[in-house]
Amino acid sequence: MTYRIRGLDPAQFADRFAMDGDALAATLSQRLTARPEGYYACRVSLQEAAPGEEVLLTNFTHHDPANPYRSAFAIYVRRDADEPAEFVDSLPPVLRRRPIALRGYTADGCLHRASLALADDVDAAIRALLEDPDIAYIDAHNAAHGCFAARVERYRGL
Hints:
- This protein has a 6-stranded antiparallel beta sheet with strand order 5-1-9-8-6-7, covered by helices on one side. Strands 2-3-4 form a 3-stranded antiparallel beta sheet.
- The chain starts with a strand and ends with a strand.
- By secondary structure, it is mainly beta.
- It has one domain.
- The chain contains 3 helices and 9 strands, in the order βααββββββαββ.
- The longest helix has 9 residues, at 122-130.
- Helix content is 12%, strand content 35%.
- This is DUF1203 domain-containing protein.
- It comes from Pelagerythrobacter marinus.
- Pfam families: DUF1203 (PF06718).
């Protein structure tokens, strides 16, 4: 089963980088500088921000069905991330070398199955979930902190 992982559209965050602190706070956002210890995974580029790089920490509704599984959480976006990343049948850096929780949803947005990838086995876990025809897409989350990392979609090419 071929899958695709795409970064978020940066246009939905661009105006926030120009906002002052009060305006940012009103959007449930704040501007930060990435520190050397890392952990600033950009949801547009799907890579870690470099130390010293400006990032936006913002609340983002990543799963928006009209049912109880609707979900929002904090995410990071790099200021310089101007193109959404795309990975087909491969993993972006933000899904490697860390525990990842995978939540498989039906087409109507209901949770159907879930899996936990602990040892850089995210690709195998994704493929196993996609073997179930009832799973329309998978949301990947950082297992420890719970934040949304990326959406995984079935991919049939162009």
